[in-house]
Amino acid sequence: MIKAVLFDLDGTLADTAPDLGAALNRLLVEEGRAAQSMDAIRPVASHGARGLLELGFGITPQDAQFCALRERFLDHYEQGICEGTTLFDGITELIREIDSRGLQWGIITNKPMRFTDPLVQLLPLPIAPQTCVSGDTVGIPKPDAKPMLHAAAELGVDPAHCLYVGDAERDIEAGRKVGMKTVLASYGYISEFDDTASWGADLNINHPLELLVHLGQSEV
Fold first, then answer.
1. Would 92 be classed as within a structural domain?
2. 10, 15, 19, 171: which is the annotated catalytic residue?
3. Which end of the chain has the least Cβ crowding within 10 Å, N or C?
């Protein structure tokens, strides 16, 4: 039986692309470059600074200017961290229903605590998460198993009784490593180049509320 539901943050629980994109575009304008459209930003938003800087500047962490641009991007993002960000449609109702069924819920994200903690405080969540694991909470992010195990331990729930919902391949990989049931949030930041069928998720949902029919079942 599922006893806890855990969510990725960006692209699964909250639509953070507007604020991530705004930070990128402010940086691009400062550098005399053209702003990117939201259609271009949204599919790579789950990949954070690395993905967005690659989109905007065509650089990777191996490039000499990457670190300096990354810090400026993060500063811009921190200043407007919840101006355009919203919970995805249905998330509020889903969390309320999870709680009403006596289940626990939490967040496991690769977003650093510097941004996760203030964002979670600002989001209009109906019930606070019982665990919130950031990308630097245990010193290594997903797809490593440690963040998943840490969240399950904080809840006191065996990973086998946890459901993990995410919109990126690393989410599904991390959940599978520890025996969690995995759910692909197809409404999230999925690129046309993502081969989601090969990720091996147990479920695929196109709207958060589709998850409700699977809660309380012995098998997903």
1. yes
2. 10
3. N
Nearest-angstrom CA–CA distance, 49 and 76: 11
Does 89 qualify as catalytic in the annotation? no
Contact 188, 216 (CB under 8 A): no
Which of 81, 99, 102 has the alpha carbon at shortest distance from 91? 99
Of the listed 8, 15, 19, 167, which one is catalytic?
Answer: 8
User: What residues contact residue 58 under an 8 Å CB cut-off, 6+ apart?
Assistant: none
User: Using one digit for the tens of pLDDT, what is the confidence trace for 85-122?
Assistant: 999 999 999 999 999 999 999 999 999 999 999 999 99
Could you confirm whether 136 is annotated as catalytic? no
Same domain flag for 120 and 181: yes
DSSP string, 16-74: -HHHHHHHHHHHHHHTT-PPPPHHHHGGGGGGHHHHHHHHHH---TTSTTHHHHHHHHH
**Whole-structure pTM value:** 0.95
Domain stop point among 29, 59, 79: 79
**Partners of 87 in beta bridges:** 14
